TrEMBL record:
Residues 108-317 form the Heat-inducible transcription repressor HrcA C-terminal domain. GO terms for molecular function: DNA binding. Belongs to the HrcA family. PANTHER family: HEAT-INDUCIBLE TRANSCRIPTION REPRESSOR HRCA. Negative regulator of class I heat shock genes (grpE-dnaK-dnaJ and groELS operons). Prevents heat-shock induction of these operons. GO terms for biological process: negative regulation of DNA-templated transcription. It holds the Pfam family HrcA. Keywords: Repressor, Stress response, Transcription, Transcription regulation. This is Heat-inducible transcription repressor HrcA.
Length: 337
């Protein structure tokens, strides 16, 4: 039995109706949705056929139908149009523009702020990563004395971003120490790829600085090796979703590991990618992750995603995600302010 245009329209309608109230969709409700263009009998036959195809499920004998995981996958792969930012209502576009106009464009500040706004705007959890590039490295170091026993190590990346880490020096730190350390770091660790930070190189850096100042060298090493940082906002919205809340612990555990979280929300190419929770390892039944890549200029890219129920309002939410991703990249690149 093959899918035809009518079956596709019916599946699309059931996904939309089930997203509205979470109740199984019956033939009477479907008939009203189609303005009685199809009879209840015809709809019942088509729903039975979709059930045989594995695209619908019937929770109870007397109930209507709901999309199955396979049905959602078919819908996401074949029926939903690629979201266009132009389909976003003008009021939503202005709201998002106003949000970004008020944000600090520094990626480490912008990403959590934008992610929080995306979660509040959509009622889903939202996640994002700071931008990264394969050849990103540190172009310049500064070491600033912070009190008597601490040093702030500032690293400017080759893309213009700034990373910071504080190191404690138990024996105390002078301004001359800070200046000498900055010179040492700029000679030895600028434009060095993380994989080239050999134990021999780091041992020579510690030897040149002196053992008492080794914590500052270790802080600089951490800045060189820092990968994209992932953040999760709006977890409270998942706690309110009956079909998703059981996955909250698993999700929080994943986001305690930057590498795992970054991989979880990494999209395929430049299109929006939808991943059903049942396809993940570990599985998160009832959940869906939709993610989009953003372009921050200079070869830098990151990911932004919505995490919610499989019955989320895709037609409404995907254009919001698409435009958010575009504005994140533009803000980081200094455009569109």
């Amino acid at each position: 039995m093959a899918m035809d245009a009518r079956k596709q329209r019916i599946l699309e309608a059931i996904v939309a109706l089930y997203a509205n109230d979470g109740e199984p969709v019956g033939s009477g409700l479907l008939a009203n949705y189609f303005d009685m263009a199809l009879s209840s009998a015809t709809l019942r036959n088509e729903m039975a056929a979709l059930t045989k195809l594995g695209l619908l499920e019937q929770p109870h004998t007397s109930a209507g139908r709901v999309p199955s995981a396979q049905g959602y996958r078919y819908y996401l792969d074949h029926l939903i149009d690629a979201p266009k930012s132009g389909t976003l209502p003008e009021k939503d576009r202005r709201r998002i523009d106003d949000l970004f106009a008020a944000m600090d464009a520094e990626p480490e500040k912008l990403v959590p702020a934008a992610t929080r706004c995306l979660a509040d705007m959509t009622g889903c959890a939202a996640a994002a990563t700071t931008p990264q590039a394969p050849d990103l490295c540190i172009a310049h170091f500064e070491v600033v004395q912070v009190g008597r026993y601490s040093a702030a190590v500032l690293a400017v990346t080759s893309a213009g971003g700034v990373r910071t880490r504080v190191a404690r020096v138990d024996t105390g730190l002078t301004r001359d120490d800070a200046a000498n350390l900055a010179q040492l770091l700029n000679r030895g660790l600028t434009f060095v790829a993380p994989q080239d930070l050999s134990p021999m190189l780091m041992a020579s850096m510690v030897l040149a600085a002196g053992q008492r100042l080794a914590p500052v060298i270790m802080a600089a090493q951490a800045l060189v090796t820092t990968g994209p940082q992932a953040c999760l906002e709006g977890a409270q919205y998942l706690a309110k979703m009956a079909d998703v809340r059981q996955n909250l612990g698993t999700l929080l555990e994943i986001f305690s590991d930057n590498e795992a979280a970054t991989e979880l929300i990494r999209p395929e190419g430049n299109k929006i990618t939808a991943t059903l929770g049942c396809d993940l390892d570990p599985a998160m039944p009832g959940a869906c992750i939709v993610s989009k890549r953003y372009l921050a200029g200079g070869g830098l890219t990151g990911s932004v995603a919505l995490i919610g129920s499989t019955r989320m309002e895709y037609e409404r939410l995907l254009p919001i995600l698409d435009y958010f991703a575009a504005r994140m990249g533009q803000s980081m690149a200094g455009q569109g302010q």
